[in-house]
Specification:
286 residues; alpha/beta; 9 helices; single chain; 8-stranded parallel beta sheet; 15% strand
């Protein structure tokens, strides 16, 4: 057991080092990363497409990288925004890691990109433990997922800089209790901002983009209690996400997921395959 825990800690420590380097390298290029986490079906892709479209209409240079186990469906949708999009197929791996992200950006991320939105693999367990060198970590939940979602996934919600509720246009139909949801978020992440959105109604239009731009330009970012308790920041004056990659009880992330009702097999990554790249097109790689 000790050897397993030591290995887990070593993996996370290596990721933290990669994330720190990636954050510095991208900052030197004027780029900030926004890491989007959610369960499948939360409406994350629809909301991101809207924010990317808005950025394009404002002339803000942004790009998006989306990760899925299979298919390029999300990338095709995001490319409708006319911003550069890259699809990463993980072949079963349940999350992105900082080293993987950095490798996929090499030779692809356009110069002058101010924001890189990363649509992480759709689950709230594995990705929560991995810093991607982000400036802003956003966790999304739809009104259909239940008010106790933050309590079921305390690491994901507990390390968020911003929490977004999606599909509010059907909140009444599904008896969503906003007050209860807010109380549960507050229990795991006191003081974090909660934003209500509806792509259909246009509620919350531009909020994610505005928050991301503000963070990139040095505005203070919410520092979760869990992150403060888990790690010391790399730089004392840094406002960016810096670690917090252990679970709420202090244990390291276990990829076997024996405590979860489902498992995610590990896979290695094959050679990249690419399509034509540029605004409104998709590049795909494994």
């Amino acid at each position: 057991m000790c050897r397993v825990v030591d290995l887990q800690q070593a993996v996370l420590a290596k990721n933290d080092a990669c994330a720190h380097t990636l954050r510095e390298d991208l900052a030197a290029r004027g780029t900030s990363v926004v890491n989007l986490l959610s369960s499948p079906g939360s409406g994350k892709t629809a909301l991101l497409e809207r924010e990317l479209t808005l950025a394009h209409s404002r002339g803000i240079p942004v790009a998006a990288l989306t990760a899925d186990l299979a298919t390029e469906n999300d990338a095709v949708r995001l490319a409708r925004s006319k911003v550069p999009v890259k699809q990463v197929l993980t072949d079963g791996l349940c999350h992105l890691e900082a080293g993987m992200l950095g490798g996929h950006l090499d030779g692809w991320l356009p110069a002058g990109t101010r924001l890189l939105f990363v649509e992480n693999v759709g689950n709230l367990v594995c990705p929560a433990s991995y810093d991607l060198g982000e400036t802003l970590r956003i966790v999304l939940a739809s009104v259909t997922e239940g008010e106790d979602k933050p309590l079921k996934y305390p690491t994901a919600f507990g390390l968020a800089h911003l929490v977004v509720v999606t599909k509010t246009d059907i909140a009444e139909a599904v008896d969503f209790d906003e007050k209860a949801f807010r109380a549960n978020v507050e229990r795991v992440n006191p003081g974090v901002e909660i934003v209500l959105t509806s792509v259909r109604r246009g509620e919350g239009d531009g909020v994610l983009l505005d928050r991301a731009l503000a963070a990139r330009d040095g505005a203070p970012v919410h520092l979760p209690v869990m992150a403060r308790q888990s790690h010391q920041p790399h730089d004392a004056d840094s406002h960016t996400y810096d670690g917090g990659h252990t679970h709420a009880d202090g244990s390291a992330h276990d990829h076997s997921h024996a405590h979860e009702p489902h498992t995610h097999p590990r896979h290695t990554h094959g050679a990249a395959r690419s399509h034509a790249d540029g605004p409104g097109s998709v590049e795909s790689s494994r």
